[in-house]
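Lay summary. Proteins are chains of building blocks that fold into shapes, and those shapes determine what they do. In this project we predict the shape from the chain. Here is one chain we studied, written as its sequence of building blocks.
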Amino acid sequence: MLVTDWAEIKDLHTFHKVAATHEDAVRIVMQRTSVDMSMVPEDTSFTTYLIDLVRQGAASVSATRAVLTGGCPLTTPRMGAPVVARAGVVPQSRLEESAGRILQLKEDLGLLDNPFPDPASPLLGTVGSREDRDVALELARESAVLLQNRCGQRARARRAALDAAHRA
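And here is the predicted shape, written in a compact code that computers can read:
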């Protein structure tokens, strides 16, 4: 199962500037990656956009079926051509893959049977410890990789690594 860094999907639009909108960032992530969960618990926009994108995908499938069966498909306003797909739709199967991985991990961890931690567990006191933060910082530093320096990407990669290290 793959979980994003904090607000990283939204950052594709607001920080990295590779997506035109937040909804576009969700589309890119769901079409081009295997991300299963957005790590922003108080912001439900990822879920809202994803549901809309899945519904748009279902509408495109319906339009395609109408074209293939001789029905009356939707048409584009300018060209009059059948709408068989919209750039940016997410198939329901993609959502189901992620849901399956999330549920499998919860099952493997025993969270479906016992979703709340034991308040007496000694591990609860270690969450967010200095040692955890040091390990997170080291992992962030080790994971920054520049494969090829084109158009000043080295400075951008360094800035992204510093940002990731700062978040840790």
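What the prediction tells us: The mean pLDDT is 75.
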